[in-house]
Write a sequence for this structure.
């Protein structure tokens, strides 16, 4: 991801926040009962903290390498506020899971920010232990206020 041009007042240190799963719907792709196997999942999350989004939209492709192990990739459309700025942007996500939980890294898709989130860049991660209802995440972000892409509606 290109490093955005920032000014000291637009740089933000990693911030701990939380999200909850509001909905998870998974559909198999191809034959079942054997490994590896694939699935598609649609997920809705609710974020609080510096990132506030009551209902995101996620689409994942999941590769099961065993009954409870595998990897995933996906995109998450986030509509809400970051640091009080309102708009939308897309996160690109990838991670792994096993019997203990899920680990994920994500980055803001360059150029995906709209309205007040135009010029948003950043990355983050989370580790989720099964059984926890709230997931802490870290999101290190910055705004490139010099970014001049046309405004896009969310």
């Amino acid at each position: 991801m290109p490093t955005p041009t920032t000014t000291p007042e637009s740089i933000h240190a990693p911030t701990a926040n939380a999200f909850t799963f509001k909905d998870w719907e998974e559909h198999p792709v191809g034959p079942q009962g054997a490994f590896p196997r694939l699935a598609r999942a649609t997920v809705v999350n609710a974020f609080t903290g510096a990132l506030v989004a009551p209902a995101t939209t996620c689409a994942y492709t999941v590769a099961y390498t065993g009954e409870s192990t595998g990897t995933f990739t996906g995109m998450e459309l986030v509509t809400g506020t970051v640091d009080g700025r309102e708009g939308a942007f897309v996160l690109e996500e990838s991670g792994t899971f096993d019997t203990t939980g899920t680990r994920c890294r994500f980055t803001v898709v360059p150029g995906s920010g709209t309205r007040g989130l135009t010029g948003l860049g950043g990355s983050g991660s989370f580790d989720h232990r099964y059984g926890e209802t709230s997931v802490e995440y870290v999101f290190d972000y910055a705004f490139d206020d010099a970014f001049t892409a046309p405004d896009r509606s969310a």
The two ends are 22 Å apart (CA to CA). Residues 31 and 37 are 7 Å apart (CA to CA). The chain has no helices and nine strands. Residues 1-15 have pLDDT under 50 and may be disordered.
